[in-house]
Amino acid sequence: PPYPESGDIRALRELARDGRVHIAATHHGPALFFPPNTLAMYDIPVIEQFETVDVPGMWQAARRTTDPAVLGRIGVTHAVAPPGAVMPPGWTLAHQGVTLDIWAAVGAAPRYAGVVGDQVPRGDVQGPSGRLPSVTVVRATPNRRVIDVAAGAAAVRVAENWSEGWQYRVGDGTWSPAERAGDRSMMLPLPDAAGAVRVEMWYRPWRRSMGRAVTAVAVVLTLAAGLVMGRRPGTPAHAGDGAATVQGTAGA
Question: What's the rounded Cα separation, in Å, for the pair 159 and 181?
């Protein structure tokens, strides 16, 4: 990161480790409180950050809302604001820091949630009486995830922007592409009557594979061109003797 990690940043990462952050700007102009992708360098996901230029994400689908109730439904669990800022109803102060304050969204949906029945196509995460099949994160990296899903879930909804590179499998089954939910989050349908299952996710975009293939071909062609260019025409055998003979004849 360009700047040392402060106590406020550590507190934010700990509080929002299973969620996403909203940057609550209190003014406009060139001196923004936080540029959208700054916190990503500290492994803190932000709903406003730029992830792809191809497909609009959840925040765009929500019309760039600042409403905590709507943000909570797309996995935003916390907001950061300048110290002393006053936040609207729906936020509760979770950390009062030196450089920023951290606010928690009331009733925010978790990043990983089991969904049931007709919630699947909508991406809805409001279960009966507010109860949903639990999802436990076993391990997670930016490109690989392993989660355990309790029985009763028809799918797993991941409150992250859908991308065509994400695939998943249930147990040791075959890999399938993640589906795009109505709110542009990711939806992972599960087999009927699957019971409790383990789901693995893998980010493997086809553009990355194509880029590696193109790079490999370019390296091979460069090496081949180097070998061809490195060859030089050979000097005729006994060229020096022939030149001496000609000179001797001329002198005679």
Answer: 10
pLDDT tens for each residue of 24-36: 875 544 445 677 6
Which pLDDT score is estimated for 204?
92
Closest CA to 154 of 200, 110, 187, 112: 187
Specify the pTM.
Answer: 0.71
Q: Is the dihedral of CA 232, 233, 237, 242 positive or negative?
A: negative
Q: How far apart are CA 131 and CA 49, in angstroms?
A: 30
Closest CA to 77 of 12, 161, 7: 12
| pLDDT, position 238 | 53
At residue 31, the pLDDT reads 47
Scanning the structure block, which residue is given the tokens 């110290």?
Answer: 83
Q: How many CA atoms lie within 13 A of 81 on its CB side?
A: 22
Nearest to 143 by CA among 66, 208, 188, 99: 208
CA distances to 13, 32, 95, 121 from 84, rounded to whole Å, are 20, 16, 11, 41
- Give the Cβ contact number of residue 7 at 10 Å: 11
pLDDT at 104 exceeding the cut of 80: yes
- 8 A C-beta contact, residue 191 and residue 142: no
